[in-house]
Amino acid sequence: MTNAHIPDKPALEGLEQKWDAAWSGAGTYLFDRDAAKAKGRAGVFSIDTPPPTASGSLHIGHVFSYTHTDVKVRYERMRGKTVFYPMGWDDNGLPTERRVQNYYGVRCDTSLPYDPDFTPPFRGDAKSLKPADQVPISRRNFIELCEELTLEDEKQFEDLFRKLGLSVDWTQTYRTISDDTIRTSQLAFLRNLDRGEAYQAMAPTLWDIDFRSAIAQAELEDRDQQASYHRVAFHKSDGSGDIHIETTRPELLAACVALVANPDDERYQPYFGSTVRTPLFDVEVPVLPHPLAVKDKGTGIAMICTFGDVTDIIWWRELDLPNRTILGRDGRIIEEAPDVLVTDAAKAAYAELAGKTVFSAKKRIVELLQESGELLEVSKPFTHPVKFYEKGDRPLEIVSTRQWYLRNGARDAELRDKLIEMGRGMGWHPDFMRVRYENWTNGLTGDWLVSRQRFFGVPIPVWYGLDENGERDYDRVLTPDVSRLPVDPTTDVPDGYTEDQRGAPGGFDAERDIFDTWATSSLTPQLAGGWERDPELWDLVAPFDVRPQGQDIIRTWLFSTMVRSVLEDGRAPWTDAAISGFIVDPDRKKMSKSKGNVVTPADILDAHGTDAVRYWAASSRLGADAAFDPQNPTQVKIGRRLAIKVLNAAKFVLSFPVPEDARITHALDASMLATLDQVVRDATKAFDAFDHARALEITESFFWTFCDDYLELVKERAYNQADSGQASAALALRMALSTLLRLLAPVLSFAAEEAWSWFEEGSVHTAEWPVPVGIEGDPAVLRTVGEALISVRRAKTEAKASQKTPVDSLTITGPDAALDAIRSAEGDLAAVGRIAQVSYAAGDTVSVGDIVLTPQEA
Fold first, then answer.
1. Where in this protein would one find the motif 'KMSKS' region, according to its record (predicted)?
2. Is residue 39 marked as binding?
3. Predicted structure pTM score
């Protein structure tokens, strides 16, 4: 390309559209399978890209973390790797269903038939509708709306990611609800089932009463809620008095199965092995020891109910207690009383609670306890952490349900140790994130609950044989041949049966549950890499080179992917994990939709340009939180200034013609290039270590020195065709520009590409990463001469004189080596400083003094 392509006034505006179209047209970022096969696995760099949830809009945190990934990817591509950079969309799951309900004003009712002509009542914001006012529709109609809306969201996401300059191969995309994905997810599960790693069980389950679905441990978060302690009297069975307990959940008294105290608590040691009778319901329950009981909490003795919280589950399981669940899946007290309630008074008390919500039941039982005299005291309200589904609005309850589980090491020491071992064999960036993975793995209390009672997701591919009474025989699980995948048990029929046997005695019944979204997202390497679909591709990209992600989903996405890979292949799914920090607001609070402090990126990109925003993101190291103030995005403004300077500096450098026989002959030019050689070494080392922020810092620091000092020092010589050093200066400038554009290209992707196009063929992003050119030179020359130039400029400024003011004479003091360096570049210094005569004097440090300005110019 020639200088004719250089605009008169270079600008950042419009570069995103221009170069996105050019990259797409040229296939710049396509995965070259033939090249990958020629190089082998070692020549490929593969990324297990996070698939964003396609429900709603992207936020500034996506820009932050995805830029970190893209910077590393662009570097590896320039290093000669064949890059496999796919993009996925996480379509299914509870957030998508909630968004569809709020967008269209509908809710799913599985009892309704499919309506092929259904038109939703809204296409926009129906969020203000109460659930009762949402239009009930069939499961198939509901799923069709989910498909429609996610496709719309995904297109908007892709447009934003293209604007952000992600060098993704957009032909390598996948959706977590496509036929290929469903087949892969179902196949992996059936293999887990065959190996005994997947199983189903009736067990206490964390339950969201709004979503009407089970929730896994990894999806929990604690939120502070207000509560009060209710001091209640339990009656000793021998009639010798009462034992007082304090509880925040008196509404669960009918589900009480024991009292528990710490085995070292002398107050209650005499009662271990005895029994007490519950207030109101007069049920005999044991008093038992357990180390999880806290001596100084409340009265030191607690009631175990089935189930008030996760500690109740532990006590229930380890103490082998009965299950008297009284809460239904709708969050209301069930109508049928536990069979241990035998007295008329007990049954009457329970009838007062049946059908009520937890809140109403608590209010009523407090009244009943007051009437019976068994409520001794109610404490002042206080706040305490309560378990919520991370996307839910009400506290979780615990109900007993039959669910599917996947072994994750919680009850298998050998598997847990293997997961820890695989984690330690990976590179973690930053390394301390590995501790979070290990803490989660070691702290698991139960296997991974993978089934959900929802609609839009991957169907669990099993049926159940029915006995002669039409009841499910859970010991007779029917599975499809893998050649039939994907299947939907609610519409497909198991081998050996016909449709008219569905639900009939001796026939079959479909599993209606779907997989938890993480059960599919945990297979992103397999989904993107063609596992069991494209063996050649899988061998070229797996195990992947890097898993980039946020720190908040180590416990969900990273851990679950590790579990699936270890169970299936006995290895880690990647060699490295790159973990980004959080985005925080100016008050250092994490940005989240629930806090209402999320910034959407479109306006920021429009206002400041993509390169400016990429610079802000790349300035933060992996694992470090970054503050963002949309009202005053200082770092973004600095990035914009840098990107504009790159364009202007390139235009300036390219204005100097380079003779064909040009060589580096001038000490100052050699010194600058020698300094740049070290910058290349240091930036390369930083990129190899996943430290993009350090690489940018090193490069940017040199770039500003290059512009402020070296360009100023050599421009007179570079302009002067009669100067014997002109060719050396022009060549050095051109070499430095080529190197700097490639060093900055991973971050300033658009400005670097634009400037590169002015004098080079092809894309800077497929150019070779710079290597040290090996020119001999003393970097101290540039530094020392630059210091002298700065001193001359400062003197003129203090004298309130123009920088063009001639200097009759000056004296430079310094060590001999420094003075020799300055003498070698005296011509450049004299030219740019308008200096007529330079004198030298020995000294400990470099300083410039005795500056005599031309009187008429002073």
1. 590-594
2. no
3. 0.83
